[in-house]
Specification:
247 residues, DNA-binding, homodimer
DNA sequence: CGTATTGTTGAGCGTAGTCAAAGTTAGTGG
DNA sequence: CCACTAACTTTGACTACGCTCAACAATACG
């Protein structure tokens, strides 16, 4: 069931190691984690709200989003995850998953037994620190999203999310051009920013008209990076990542 | 500097033990954590954005809030913390604090060296699990706030926050009447819900007029608990706590 | 090539924001 | 203990950002 597929977890290890100091022993131990590989289609659930599970999931390729739905049917996307991201560290620590995670594109993922994660964290304090750091950064991103939705206007929200995705994709080693993968529909962009799809459309058009970006179906092209950052009130400190290289 | 003040950390231990299974050894070890006690006045900073610290803070009494400020001056309160809550587990795991934490009332707190927390978590896996669980619940609450601000209208947001504070105060063993401490001004309530103080005021008045609550300067009285829950679209599952007793 | 999904446009509306001032409560110092 | 001041709450009039509804165009996909 769970095998130790050498190299499969590389995207996760790369991410952890890029943010925390890990020695050869730790990296090797992470590589030996038992895991079960799987793929998912667009829209498929990695975790369903209410689920009880004893594994956690690592996204190996593609994009996914976390969401929760209000009692009146409004869906809020609370985070976007990309290659290397750890998802559902909750495992059996919580009674039930409090939100869903769904694939935004076709994805590859790995399931790792929760107990193995806890064990490896106990055995290697450096790994425990890396996992803690990872979760703390997720919390910081979550707070920034709340700041955006609570305090910024439509234009800033959209531009800010564009900036975040660009910086995170670069950090994850996905694309580096002015052109980036863009996995979300305008409807989903609205669910992430607390806006309707119609208003998202008008806002994106305004950013295009101002020469900041260009969009095609599944891609986002950055035309004026400083301008986009300014339009989105974007300061990348909250991502706790090294600065984006190209101007 | 750091002493092991027996019993001082009781509110934190109580909270951890109420959510996770901890044995006598773990509870004793938590009680032996070195800590430095301090008090703070309303408005004082427990953590300031940009700070670098090697301690984490435990709130022993009173209320505090986390906030981050946009480049245009908008302040978003991202969480409210009460007695027993762990604050700033980040310590030296992150380069710098990405948000501030300020006292909402006069508070008592304890500073614990970050390294002591990591050590005790390494030594006692059950404590590691309890701390993980604590952080995961914080994440769930954060997502719910994002859902509120992104998808719910003014009335729902305010009512929802009232409900959350009531349930959490009960869980923390603070008050149990229909009357609860209410530490926030309407201005702050607006900063928490992404609304202006003026609109908060009108919304609170509407909840009062509908016979759901009553408010006085520093207290909130629940008149119609089921009605308030309905008005706030409140389901407490996201708090991952036992159900509130009284109807 | 046909159909479903996604993106775009327009008109009208409503929730929440803005600005400004008055009323009320709490806190402070004489 | 009272007077004064600062902080907080309340009210009113007006504005505007973003929503709703509805239709149509373009694109992806089977």
């Amino acid at each position: 069931m769970f095998t130790s597929d050498t190299g499969a977890l590389a995207p996760m290890i790369r991410k952890l190691a890029s943010r925390s100091a890990l020695g050869a022993a730790e990296i090797e131990a992470l590589g030996r984690l038992p895991c079960r590989l799987a793929t998912g289609n667009r829209g498929s659930y990695l975790i369903r709200e209410g689920d009880r599970t004893d594994t956690c999931v690592v996204l190996l390729s593609g994009f996914a989003y976390r969401s929760r739905i209000s009692g009146y049917g409004g869906r809020q996307i609370t985070a976007v995850q990309l290659r290397g991201d750890l998802i559902g560290l909750h495992g059996d620590l919580l009674d039930a998953a409090d939100h869903s995670v769904q694939a935004l594109t076709r994805i590859d993922m790995a399931h790792i037994p929760q107990q193995s994660m806890l064990d490896i964290a106990t055995q290697y304090p450096a790994i425990a620190r890396a996992l803690w750091r990872d979760v703390l950064v997720d919390g910081s991103v979550s707070r920034e999203w709340l700041l955006s939705v609570g305090q910024r206007d439509a234009r800033q929200r959209i531009a800010h999310l564009f900036c975040e995705m660009v910086v995170r994709q670069e950090a994850a080693g996905i694309g580096a051009g002015p052109r980036y993968d863009w996995p979300m529909t305008q409807e989903q962009l609205g669910e992430a920013t607390g806006m309707t799809a119609v208003h998202v459309n008008r806002t994106v058009q305004s950013l295009r008209a101002d020469g900041l970006i260009d969009t095609a179906r599944h891609s986002l092209t950055i035309i004026d990076w400083p301008g986009l950052q300014a339009a989105g009130d974007f300061k990348q400190a909250y991502l706790h990542q090294p600065a984006r290289q190209h101007a």
